[in-house]
Design goal:
By secondary structure, the chain is mainly α. The chain is built from 4 helices and 3 strands. The chain has 2 domains: 76 residues, no CATH class; 38 residues. β2 and β3 form a beta hairpin.
Amino acid sequence: MIANRKRKVDNENRQFNDDWTVLYCFVQHQTNVICLLCHSTVAVAKVSNIKRTYETKHQEFHNVVGDERTARIEFQRRSLNRQQNIFSKQSADFSAACEVSYKISLMIAKSGRPFTDGNFVKQCMITAS
């Protein structure tokens, strides 16, 4: 007897269609589909879900057509990329500062000297730069 298996969304291999960017102002970022206008995500990359979200939340954008629509979509796409790059840049800066902090802590632990010793502080500052 064949067991009844539930249909799972993950097994459907749904793919984002690039035409949806122009039609509905959505882009794909990693595994999510994100609206360029309100930055909301859609759970499943189906045209019906994307279309419904676009028509209910962004009726005023439906009247924008042609070159103006393309320009606004491109502006929103660049804006989203800038927002995402801010976090990755801050993460890189934080990890560099954390690495220097660990090096200085290791120097303090190995030397056994107080951090008020002038020459030792100078060595730590050279390491930090």
